[in-house]
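Input structure tokens:
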């Protein structure tokens, strides 16, 4: 059993689609470190959430961001703030003069137990387009990969190619090879 500390239930759905029901949602809002590194933010959050949850069950956190090349990587680690302020339409306005702006998503998943903290990363390159699709969440409608936005993919399709799916794949294979502590997680 692994606790997934996040305020975002959609992330948990994606992790459960990958790792199964042994991933349990811990609705916990950890203090986000002011950092440009997703991995540092996730690690700090995992450590905090692990102790807040009692310190007897492994905890994962996921810090993700979208990095737009023409905007120098903005919003990157500030993706949540930007999503809740200017939103998708604000991003599209900023990108008006650019033709097929390229971007990538990145996820850092931090796993914290009483023995260790390990980070797993994944990324995906794509293009920013006008919104399409009703699946997914966040920036999915404006992020196109291979002709489809992430919001035009079901959860399994998205997991197969996404930043989070790639990080989850690394976590899954690490859990499979890891001893005692995690047996039964996957
Ligand atoms: P927690 O920090 O509580 O886990 P959050 O939603 O704030 O939840 P992030 O800071 O990692 O998570 O997310 C930054 C922003 O990027 C936020 O607006 C998300 O909706 C968005 N986002 C994260 N993963 C995404 C994905 O797979 N597809 C589209 N948008 C995503």
């Amino acid at each position: 059993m692994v606790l997934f500390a996040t305020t975002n239930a959609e992330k948990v759905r994606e992790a459960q689609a990958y790792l199964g029901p042994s991933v349990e949602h811990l609705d916990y809002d950890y203090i986000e470190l002011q950092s440009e590194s997703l991995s540092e933010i996730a690690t700090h959050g995992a450590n905090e959430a692990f102790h807040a949850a009692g310190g007897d069950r492994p905890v994962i956190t996921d810090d993700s961001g979208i990095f737009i090349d023409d905007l120098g990587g903005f919003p990157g680690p500030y993706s949540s703030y930007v999503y809740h302020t200017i939103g998708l339409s604000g991003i599209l306005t900023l990108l008006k003069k650019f033709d097929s702006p390229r971007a990538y998503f990145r996820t850092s998943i931090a796993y914290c137990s009483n023995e260790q903290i390990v980070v797993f990363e994944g990324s995906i390159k794509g293009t920013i387009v006008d919104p399409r699709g009703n699946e997914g969440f966040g920036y999915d409608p404006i992020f196109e990969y291979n002709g489809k936005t992430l919001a035009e993919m079901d959860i399994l399709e998205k997991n197969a190619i996404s930043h989070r799916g790639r990080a989850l794949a690394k976590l899954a294979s690490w859990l499979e090879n890891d001893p005692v502590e995690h047996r039964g997680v996957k």
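The first strand starts at residue 2 and ends at 5. The longest helix spans residues 38-52.
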